[in-house]
Every structure is written in C-alpha cells, then in structure tokens.
C-alpha cells in the first residue's frame, strides 16, 4: 500500500470517528437531557410564544399582551429570542447585523444553542414557579427562517429536541410586501422581500397543520392586540 493511500485512509478513519461521535452525542444526549427537563418542569406554568415576520409588530404585541394579562391578575413574564444572554448577543452581532448572511447551518446551530440556554435559564425556572411565560419568538422562528434558508425541517426539529413545544403558538400574519415597507432602513440580513416571502410560506405550513394560531396582523395595533388577547384568554379558559 502506498504511503499516500495509508494517509488517506487514516484521515478517513478520523473523520468517521468524529462523525460517529458527533452523531451519537446528537442522538443520545439531547434526548436524555430533555427527558430530565420534562420531569423537572412538571408543567406548573403555561408557555406561549408569538411568531411572525420581521416588522409584523410582534415585539409591540408581545409587550402589550404581557401588560394586559398582568392587569387581569396573571403572573406573567415576557421573554425573547434571540435571548439577552451571551449567545443571543453573539448571534445579533455575528449573524443578523453583518454585511451578508452566514450559512443557514451555522445560524440554526447558534439559535438552537441560544434556545437551550434560554429554556434552561429563563423559561423552565419561571414555569416551575407556575408563571405564564410569553416568548417573543421561539422554535418556529428557526423552522421558518432557517427552513426558508434551505434546511430540512426535520433536522432543525432534531437539533431543537431539547426545546419543549409551547402550549400555545401565535402567528401574527402580515403580508411580506407590507413588512418590507415598514422595515426601512433595514436592520438585519433577514429583512428583504424574498426571504420574508419564503419565511411566511414555512410559517403557513404550521398554521395549516394547526400548530400555529394565525391572527390577522393587518389591522390597527389595538385591534390586533384585542384579537391576540381573545385567543390567549380562550386558551387559558380551556387549560384551567
Ligand atoms: P427580532 O424579533 O427581529 O429581534 P429584534 O427585534 O431584537 O431585532 O429577531 C431577530 C431576527 O432573528 C429575525 O430576523 C428572525 C431571526 N431568527 C432566526 O432566523 N431564527 C431563530 O431561531 C430566531 C429566534 C430568530
């Protein structure tokens, strides 16, 4: 056997070993950890997320929802992704506010890592205390944005296995051409018509299969807030 062939085989073996190790840890570790998490959580609180295109009014609506639910006496905390933690801040600098988009695989892995910390450090402790947690974006953002970037939705779900499904997920639906008008000047690499159209297509798949509840976001701020509150109160009435 020639020296170069031996070297090639050695390299191949190293790559195989790394891949086997990586895959094994992906397949085994998150499952074992999420099992612990589910047990620890014990489902005392309620977890709701609000999703939508950039510029759909999601952040304003999430804040309004938190305020209105508090007024009604609910023990609510508002949270967001990308999170305020170190990985979330890194994502904002490295992925969102750069000159051009990084690979969708890198985005998906970073958002999944940020979500792991967000769930572990913010969401689960609040749910353990019986709180109502409202998150401005969650796992559906990864499915929609990184799915629109060309990644397999099943793979995105797998790397997010640690992230429990929310009890209720709301999608504020605004036409991509309208959000693009609102998003001037542009703040992030995601804010262009083609991306927003593709993102909406993926979100709509989850509306169609019943995982996301669609709210018409083309009305006035107050009307959209009323509609969202109605959906949430109806859900809470059934959950109690
Ligand atoms: P955004 O809600 O616009 O945050 P902010 O108002 O703080 O700028 O979200 C930032 C961007 O990140 C948005 O374009 C969607 C994108 N994103 C993903 O691509 N994948 C994800 O998993 C998440 C959570 C966000």
Explain this structure.
There is one protein chain. The protein is an alpha/beta fold. The chain is built from nine helices and five strands; from the N terminus they run αβαβααβααβααβα. About 60% of the residues lie in helices and about 10% in strands. The longest helix has about 40 residues, at about 5-40. It is globular, with a radius of gyration of 20 Å. Bound molecules: thymidine-5'-diphosphate (TYD). Thymidine-5'-diphosphate binds near residues 54, 81 and 96. Thymidine-5'-diphosphate binds near residues 54, 96, 142 and 188.
Separation, N- and C-terminal Cα atoms: 72 Å
**Which CATH C-level class of the largest domain is it?**
Alpha Beta
Give the amount of beta strand, in percent.
5-15%
Bound molecules: thymidine-5'-diphosphate
Q: How would you characterize the largest beta sheet?
A: 5 strands, parallel
Q: Which runs of at least 5 residues are low in confidence (pLDDT < 50)?
A: 1-8, 14-19, 21-41
CATH fold descriptor of the largest domain: Rossmann fold
Average predicted confidence as pLDDT: 86
- Tally of individual domains: 2
CATH architecture descriptor of the largest domain: 3-Layer(aba) Sandwich
Global shape: globular
**Radius of gyration (Å):** 20 Å
Structural class: alpha/beta
Order of helices and strands: HEHEHHEHHEHHEH
DSSP helix fraction: 55-70%
CATH-wise, what's the superfamily of the largest domain?
P-loop containing nucleotide triphosphate hydrolases
How many helices? The count is 9
| Beta strands, count | 5
Major sheet strand order: 2-3-1-4-5
